[in-house]
């Protein structure tokens, strides 16, 4: 969806400020609010465009002179004041940012006729006059709704023209106040609604006060531009003007030179019509026509024109009147007619079979405009949250949503979703009800279109006034009932302008996550990303009331899998049943990627409790090409992070599950251990130590890699499900194994044993090949002595040590009694309570990549991360041509090379 603009407002931090606004700057922590500074958003002329710029200045020198000897600086003030002073400093008066004037709270309607004769004489950015290249005599009409400082715009354009490239709002001098891109090259727009209706839709948000004044005074023009910049093919412009009939408009018409008219005389002419009806006892029609070009040069005042409304197919005239124009103008003329019609003629009108014509009396065929009466020119859809008023009538918690719109052919497109419908009630009875009548008449039955998947999608081709009239008046409801004629859920179809989030392909149903919520609670949300990579959202809720403080948040996952990493973004905080907004900052690349290819969870939370009330699963948000991230070739999962500074926090995806960095796990193959490092999974296959059973028998247990000796003792232990655990892997009692360490894998020079008596793991060094296995071991080490010291070998046999041996044993027991931790590699040296240490591994020495801490008998270990600082230290050693002791570092040279390569890639991208 292309809704970027070239911006007539200012962005300061995370806030958007309108032109003319002033504020006290808040720079956040640690600086805070600068009370002696003032900032304002000032207009700046850049060629023909007016843009906003932030200007800040000090007001300290403007402080008034104190009237006392000891003035006091009050909190939140810049100037010192004296006791008894009344009122704040005059220089601290700030223009309110979000306060609306009373007349801005209600919607105001405007229309514009864009023809060659109504256009301003504009110049491009290079001050060259734009030549009139509108050879096909393209005509357009616009509808504008001003609501809460936002101007929603809609355009309907001749079929012979492609979609315009951009829209400009200008003043009478041709200065560009705001500009919007409407389509990419070739007139393409990624919008289901705009393509189906042939309309051009969008919104100018946060219109500045000075521009609101121009709009109110009818001094603003809309300019449609075909082509780009100074290479524009042609432009059409028209003045935004108020018309009282717009408030009740039901149908519209675009009037162009009629077939057979004088093409030379009719060049640059056109018109539009505002059509409204009454479906009371005596049906009637009212038509307001805005036009130009059907007068001769000699016709100056009180000129008659013919207005004809006929059924196109039958050539049957329904209304024919002659209306007099007091003073014909070259650009804009306005007339109106009213007439009584039949119900059958109203049906022809609502189905697009009526032709409206206006012509000169003096030259009836040469000077004539005509066009079919079509669907209302305003970009508008109708949505509803379907919920139950009574929980007793809806014990299963059924909820739903619906959205309708009218396409270019005048057909009503409807989409209805119903969730948690009981199978016995599928399909339900789905009807459209007009609640404006006493009997609440059923106007359409959509039951036959309901599918077993919870959706009803279809088209009502032959629209009648009984549907169209209550639809536009807000009196049309969707009712979902059971076969027993009991109503389950219902909802009112509410008209909404199409722009930003509501221009996305479809809304998403918000489902209840809290079982204590009433069955009347429900909601829907629209999401979209614009061409500037801002996320737009529009939320509609029912049943929560208007007082509850709510929070809207989004969690973005690469996929739904255990342990999947997610990016969390708080979008907004609000009260009430609706929220419409967008992010100030552009989306990061990883956020865009997950919205495009991943799965996101949108949550409505209670601000006070933090509990999730409603949630929607978002599986696909259309992303403009300019926002899509770069995906490396041969990569199953796109890059989640932009900077090498966070590469060490990337999780690893393996066998449909995500794992945290620096963790290890057993794969689906029980003999394979894996670990996650720098976002990459590395696995190693285990070799089982030789095992001989002195008693019992050797058994291969399902789910275990190595066989185990099973005897009566072990069997009784195993039946209780107790196991030994080391580095994330569990072992059955009686199992022999080689320990697993990151990043080296299985240590084949150490053999461990899960003791079935106390479920303790005991390890020993293998002496078969000391040169290969144990570069850090001391000779004379007695592996059979449980209190043997691996640093200082005993000088006498154990049996002759006597009291010295007992002292060491008592000292070790005392440390354990005081909350110390056992040392599985050297029981003689337990770790004292509160101590930090690196584990010692026979084949590696002191393992400095892991730091452990003993707290009250419990050992917790944390692995140090491999980062660029460590890699630089290793590189310095290598440059000095010294030998790198791998046990001193937590990185390998291969990992460092990959990290440097990754950093260069991010720098170039």
TrEMBL record:
Record carries keyword Secreted: yes
GO BP annotation list: dorsal/ventral pattern formation; negative regulation of BMP signaling pathway; system development
Residue ranges occupied by any VWFC domain in the UniProt entry: 8-83, 650-710
Keyword Flavoprotein set for record: no
Domain CHRD: 106-245, 247-378, 381-498
UniProt cross-references to PANTHER family, sorted A to Z: CHORDIN
Name of the protein this chain belongs to: Dorsal-ventral patterning protein Sog-like
Gene behind the chain: LOC115875349
